[in-house]
Amino acid sequence: MKLNTNSNSYIIIYSAILVVIVAFLLAFVYQALKPMQDANVALDVKKQILYSLNIRDLDGAEAEAKYAEVVKEEGEKNGQKYYLCDINGEDVLVVSMKGMGLWGGISGYISIHGDETPTVYGAYFNHESETAGLGAEIKDSQAWQEKFIGKKVFVDGTQDVALAVVKDVKDPTTQVDCVTGATLTSNGVNDMIQAGLKDAGKNAVELFMKMMCTAPADSTAAEPKAEEE
Amino acid sequence: MALFSKQNKEVFTNPLNLDHPILGQVLGICSALAVTSQLKPAIVMGLAVTVITAFANVIISVIRNTIPNRIRIVVQLVVVAALVTIVSQILKAFAYDVSVQLSVYVGLIITNCILMGRLEAFAMQNKPWPSFLDGVGNGLGYAMILVIVGAVRELLGRGSLLGFQIIPDACYDFGYVNNGMMTMPAMALILVGCVIWVHRAYFYKEK
Question: Counting C-beta atoms within 10 Å of the first and last residue's C-beta, which end of chain A has fewer, N or C?
């Protein structure tokens, strides 16, 4: 039998069958691997939270165990996640944040401690597609992330966010030097921090505790209570 | 025909030297530059391309007589895209951190010139087994360059290999500084250029 492989009907049927086979194959692979991928993503989030608490260089199982040990409670408000952690008996609040970099989304976790004058305990940033070697340094450079440690989060006596990423550091107690060659990404990090910490309130840890105590099951119900602070 | 006849051996070894996809034909440069700032993603990328080239070659070779000539590129693309998606999903499931590092470049294997070149030039005319060897040969040729460039860039740019520190702390105490230039894609281009130069000067023999 010799098929005419150049006839229109053959081409249409051929491509239809090919596409259906490929579609089934991909759907099957996706379904089969989905649980493992979800587990990886969840573990990655946990690792990032630990990074923001200056706990680095852990492999998967260690990170899982450490996370269970350190993170006491988690809650959500206005789409932002908060994690209350216990580091050697001290309360540390990890705030998740999302923002825009130069080419795509950026995200980060900043941990805060101290009730009266909250300061940064640690920070970790992630990005989707910033330039390698420049904007990507927000994720790759541990040294840059460590610059945040010890900076005051709020302007004294107010709830205004003081923590900032700037080109020209005037106040070393609150400002962090931006990444050289990555002004736009750094601006993105700055905007993300300003927006992300705004809702953290002044006595962030205390506030979070209240939020959790009023409505442990439904975090949205805690919102009005939280805003009174 | 024996599995490892003379012709088949040539099919396998040519792309490692004379017809090397990067060194001889200068194909697939863009991903070679992008993923080689560290050794680990370079190795994974090399393996991924090897596996995908080999299997795409086999599949196309098996169905080569049924493929309508007018849509052959489309069919090749569908096969490659399916394989690439599967590999990318597998990486996400089993090597998540590497898949994050490789990010878009796994997806871009679809448009890798080496793949399309091998499918169009070899698999469309040859039987499955030689096609498989050809795919593995070309993939390994590509992987070889990635590993060389990745090793040099990670060693000089970060002082480590596969994430393990190689250059001792004592060197840093004496004022040794990692070469930040090496982490930039531009240095990959220069390194690939150097590798091509060495290859042409010492190993390449005209047929």
Answer: N
